[in-house]
């Protein structure tokens, strides 16, 4: 089963080239632009994520179908209300997924891949995890709501395509009502910032309303410093993909108490036992 987002890849690559050329002919000293090794790494991560996604989508579809079968009702794909419910439910599921992957270290070990570049451009959107299975539980309730599995997968693809366009410095703030309701490049630049004021903010997918509602919204004020609080300084795709899993395992292996082992896995990134603070 080929993920729907695969069909957008040629457009993604073309737009990356166009944006890279825009920096060559219209440079901006305030924007970091592109660096060849960084871009190659991002695209390698994207290609690897799609290879993993093919068999995983089959597993995902089977699980969605199983839950859809036992759902107390089945919603009609021909109803506009079903599509509206799907849009809101999918976006809320993405918010929950995204927030959890920043606040639980074993989940962060998968998601950290996407934040590992010190640059912010359209190629950064392609820097995706090779362990997509950590996201499955957040969308299972949609199948139990009676939403057909193919609709869930399609909406997930729409959301990913939308979010591709958020990864750019070439677009400043948009019209104020758009900035208030929707996730925009400005909001997503904040999310990729390692500035203290920007950490763990703006988790939204298509909408920014969930962040405003749950208190995780932060507007773009100071200049964004991209990357991690401790950057990994590597372009090796294998290290980018698995470095945090290795670091977590090292902490778990050397911990003396089961409580500390659990903290290293399920506490927030950077958690350490009280005795070490």
UniProtKB/TrEMBL annotation:
It holds the Pfam family FA_hydroxylase. GO terms for molecular function: oxidoreductase activity. The chain crosses the membrane at residues 53-73, 80-97, 138-166. Keywords: Lipid metabolism, Membrane, Oxidoreductase, Transmembrane, Transmembrane helix. The keyword Membrane applies. The keyword Membrane applies. Residues 83-216 form the Fatty acid hydroxylase domain. Its EC number is 1.-.-.-. It is an enzyme of class 1 (oxidoreductase). Its main location: membrane. It is found in: Endomembrane system. It comes from the Bacteria. InterPro entries: Fatty_acid_hydroxylase, Sterol_desaturase/TMEM195. It is a multi-pass membrane protein. This is Sterol desaturase family protein.
């Amino acid at each position: 089963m080929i993920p729907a987002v695969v069909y957008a890849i040629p457009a993604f690559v073309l737009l990356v080239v166009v944006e890279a050329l825009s920096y060559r002919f219209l440079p901006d000293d305030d924007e970091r632009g592109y660096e060849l090794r960084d871009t190659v790494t991002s695209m390698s991560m994207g290609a690897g994520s799609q290879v993993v996604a093919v068999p995983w989508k089959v597993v995902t579809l089977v699980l969605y179908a199983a839950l859809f079968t036992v759902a107390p009702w089945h919603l009609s794909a021909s109803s506009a209300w079903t599509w509206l419910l799907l849009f809101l439910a999918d976006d809320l599921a993405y918010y929950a997924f995204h927030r959890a992957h920043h606040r639980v270290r074993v989940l962060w070990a998968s998601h950290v891949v996407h934040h590992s570049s010190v640059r912010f451009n359209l190629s950064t959107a392609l820097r995706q995890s090779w362990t997509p299975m950590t996201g499955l539980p957040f969308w299972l309730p949609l199948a139990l709501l009676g939403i057909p599995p193919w609709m869930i997968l399609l909406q997930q693809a729409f959301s990913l395509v939308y979010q591709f366009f958020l990864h750019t410095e070439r677009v400043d703030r948009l019209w104020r009502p758009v900035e208030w309701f929707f996730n925009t490049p400005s909001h997503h630049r904040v999310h990729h910032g390692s500035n203290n004021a920007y950490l763990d903010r703006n988790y939204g997918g298509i909408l920014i309303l969930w962040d405003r509602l749950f208190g995780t919204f932060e507007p773009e004020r100071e200049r964004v410093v991209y990357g991690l609080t401790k950057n990994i300084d590597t372009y090796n795709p294998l290290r980018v993909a698995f470095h945090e899993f290795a670091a977590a395992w090292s902490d778990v292996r050397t911990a003396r108490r089961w409580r500390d082992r659990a903290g290293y896995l399920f506490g927030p990134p950077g958690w350490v036992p009280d005795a070490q603070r």
